[in-house]
Design brief:
mainly alpha; 68% helix
Amino acid sequence: MPRTVKIAISLPQELLQGIERERRATGETRSQFFRRSVKALLGRKRELEDQYIRGYRQHPETEEEIALAESTARRALAANPWDEDAEE
């Protein structure tokens, strides 16, 4: 079994109350609830990233779209020149 580590977190009271209701309904301990919730969140994040990558590969931007993005970026940067001396 992987090594487990205890952590402490701060939550708004309303959020904790919702968590407590949910975990009691499922019969989970707080640790079980948070492990399941974090695994689900990370899994969903990875799933969305994979979906984005698949979509991009199926429909990459066109040369015209790249050119438009570059010209827009040049105009935006030219309108707001970086003055390194002004930062100091």
